[in-house]
Amino acid sequence: MELLANLSQGFAVALTPSTLLLAIAGCFLGTIIGSLPGLGPSNGVAILIPLAFSLGLDATEALVLMTSVYYGAMYGGRISSILLNIPGDEPALMTTLDGYPMAKQGRAGDALVLSGVASFVGAFLATVGLMLLAPILARVAYLFGPAEYFALYLLAFCTLGGLASKNQAKAALAAAIGLGIAMIGLDNQTGIPRLTFGEIHLMDGVDFLVAIVGLFAVSEIFMFIESHGRNTAIGVKLDKITIPFRDIVKSFPAMLRSTAIGFFAGVLPGAGASLGSFLAYMGEKAVARDKNSFGRGNPRGVAAPEAGNNAAAGGALVPMLTLGVPGSGTTAVLLALLLTLNITPGPLLFAERPEVVWGLIAALLISNVVLLIMNVPMVKLFVRLLSVPPWILLPGIMMVSFGGIYSLSGSGYDLVLMIVFGLFGYLFRKLDVPTVPIILGILLGNNMEDSLRRAMVISDGDWTYLFSSGICIGLWIAAIAGFVAPVFLKNLLQPPKPVED
Amino acid sequence: MTSDRLLGLGTITIALAYIAGATQIQIGFLSDPVGSRTFPYIVGGVAAICGAYIAFRPDQDPSWPNSRTFLRIGLALIVMYVFTQTLKPFGFLIPAAIASAALSYLISPRPMMAIAAGIGLSLGLFAIFNFGLGLSLSPFGRYFSG
Questions:
Q1: What's chain B's Rg over C-alpha atoms?
Q2: A292 DSSP assignment
Q3: In which element (H, E) is residue A128 found?
Q4: pLDDT value at position B146?
Q5: pLDDT at residue A241 greater than cutoff 70
Q6: Could you tell me which of A227, A498, B40, B95 has the fewest CB atoms within 10 Å of its CB?
Q7: How far is CA A375 from the centre of its chain?
Q8: Mutation for A interface: B56, B66, B80, B122, most A CBs within 10 A
Q9: Could you state, in order of their start, the residue ranges of all structural domains in chain A?
């Protein structure tokens, strides 16, 4: 009953005209961002944060806007996967496997509608799951002391890195780079500058928004310059859109199974949507009787990864809101938004600012309905956006990134720093050093150090305190397993090759 | 192979410099058991170990683009840098138009299209930023508006 009371409070917040308008605008922008090749949820949300900030929105409104963008981008990512065989973002990779073959068979419209419905099922049920699970986890989070938090942060780095790169050393290096950058600036405990090398701009530390926009958006520009001409697939024409009732009914059980898998993958700190869609697809292929038709345009191969990745997107919000540890790259960016808004995620958020949490949850439920409408009957509108040429799109991304950051900080130094991050982002992506752990390191570095130092103050320097509770030991074991397991599962975690033209 | 060896060596160098920098951190008079230096040491140490591992067990080289593409990326870097340096003195409109046009040309070398894209993006985004979002970007900067 408490749940219903909370939810009605949430709807009271979400149903105000301004919040509703922001949710709709967010869904629209998000779907555009998702469907444009080269702009995924993480860099899309990253370049919009400074702009959302300048609108002078309050915390709930900003959060509603950006999470709607996030959900919208997850929906929109499938459009270019299906029509162009280019995933709009990483989690949408699995959708290309059966989506593009389906489109080539002249069933592009069916594939788009089916995946839109699958996205809705996954995202809607995951939001319900978030609603049920988050308050429980928030209560568990009260048991977390500094030692537990330290182990939890470690777990996030281990599981996130384990899947992001083929080489564990590179994943660990990425985390170390992020943590190393986080140390720059004033020491939280003593107020003495560290590692600033006398540079006054660095006293405040490196702004995580600068790093995020640089690593995600600016590096994308360099990637595009490199790939230009090569990735311009001709794609598949889309004619009439009808609703494939039979396919929807037939693949509905697959959607439900994939939602469960995806949600679970999303809740794991660090694992995220790519894992969700991957596991959902592989799981569906494993239980199917017609295994051979996967990869050749099986409708269930379209429904499963879409339900899985959208469910993971909802699931990833659970650890982000309750523990302050993001479950994916985009939720790391959303965490940056929360920190910029001066909201500390965690159990106290649920106790002290229920209107933020429940307003967000209610807004997400509404957003999903809006997104279903946008992505099924109105999908043609977004398909047209795929033809925006890169020579307009990329300079546009650059200007929005620079304009946004400049309007926030007004400092030319930050802009130069952003270019440097962009260049390194490009080199790291070429060298298979994942960039998400870097962001996570910058975001969580100071908290991680603080919890270590607090734990040591409590125990008066006794290191065994870090392993003193059951939760701690569990988290340490999970962290080590999460880091080591991908080494042995390397062949299993290899996604199937997409079809070639 | 070579790329990863360079990455590994570069990482070790920077990690050692980082650790050396960390030894210079002043310790406050109110010190906790861990102190200000330990965490940077750990981070630097982890990075150095990763660097060594990468240098000794390198992956295959990625497919680097050819030198002309590198030149284009270098030019894009210069365009962005010049943009950041001219934004304050000359305002948004003119540097943005030039930078967008240059970047557009680097992606697709058709001069007329690039100029159109530059002018269109500059004016369009300025309108969105200033009137839609209420950012106060200066249109012309201090050199032109006096």
A1: 23
A2: G
A3: helix A108-141
A4: 46
A5: yes
A6: A227
A7: 20
A8: B80
A9: 2-488
Average pLDDT, integer, range A296-319: 91
Non-local (6+) Cβ contacts of A435 within 8 A are A174, A215, A216, A219, A425, A428, A429
Query: For B17-53, how does the pLDDT look when each residue is reduced to its tens digit (9 = 90+)?
Result: 999 999 888 877 767 888 888 999 999 999 999 999 9
Q: How far is residue A130 CA from its own chain's centroid?
A: 15
Burial string for A72-103 (b: 16+ CB within 10 Å, else e) reads: bbbbbbbbbbbbbbbbbbbbbbbbbbbbbbbb
- A358-390 pLDDT, tens digit each: 999 999 999 999 999 988 888 888 888 777 888
Optimal mutation site among B3, B34, B81, interface A, most CBs of chain A within 10 A: B34
Query: How many Å is the maximal CA-CA distance in chain B?
Result: 65
DSSP A269: T
DSSP alpha helix (H) spans, A213-244: 219-227
- What sign has the CA pseudo-torsion A131, A132, A135, A141? negative
CB B44 within 8 A of CB B19: yes
Exposure b/e, A303-321, CB count within 10 A at least 16 = b: bbbbbbbbbbbbbbbbbbb
A242 touching B (Cβ < 8 Å): no
**What is the b/e burial string over A265-276, where b = at least 16 CB atoms within 10 angstroms of the residue's CB?**
bbbbbbbbbbbb
Return the number of other C-beta atoms located less than 10 Å from residue A163's C-beta.
22
What is the Rg, in whole angstroms, of the alpha carbon atoms belonging to chain A? 22
Burial class (CB in 10 A: 0-12, 13-18, 19+), A492: exposed
A–B interface: beta-carbon pairs under 8 A: 186
Q: How many CA atoms lie within 13 A of A67 on its CB side?
A: 35
Nearest CA to A322 out of A466, A154, A142 is that of A142
**Cβ-defined contact of A169 to B50 (cutoff 8 Å):** yes
The vertex-B78 CA angle with B72 and B83, nearest 5°, equals 125
Q: What are phi and psi of B137, to 5 degrees?
A: -85, 140
Place of tokens 């959708």: A95
The residue type at A197: F
Share of chain A above pLDDT 70, in %: 93
Per residue in A278-295, is it b (16+ CB within 10 Å) or e — as a string?
A: bbbbbbbbeebeeeebbb
- Cβ neighbours for B70, distance < 8 A, ≥ 6 positions apart: B64
Which chain A residues in 362-401 lie under 8 Å from chain B, judged by CB atoms? 389-392, 394-396, 398-400
Q: In this structure, what token pair is assigned to residue A352? A: 């002290």
Residue A149, judged by CB atoms within 10 A of its CB (0-12, 13-18, 19+), counts as buried
Pairing status of strand A193-194 against strand A185-186: antiparallel
- Chain B hits for A419, Cβ within 8 Å: 77, 80-81, 84
Check residue A127 and give its pLDDT. 94
Burial class (CB in 10 A: 0-12, 13-18, 19+), B123: middle
CA–CA gap between residue A101 and residue A98 (Å, rounded): 5
Count Cβ atoms below 10 Å from residue A4 Cβ, excluding itself.
Answer: 8
Tokens (6 digits) for A91: 């989690």
For the CA atoms of A193, A195, A197, A200, what is the dihedral angle to 10 degrees?
A: -40
* Cβ separation A431–B62 shorter than 8 A: yes
| A385 φ/ψ angles, rounded to the nearest 5 degrees | -65, -20
Chain A closest CA to B32's CA: distance in Å? Answer: 6
Tell me the three state secondary structure of residue A186: strand
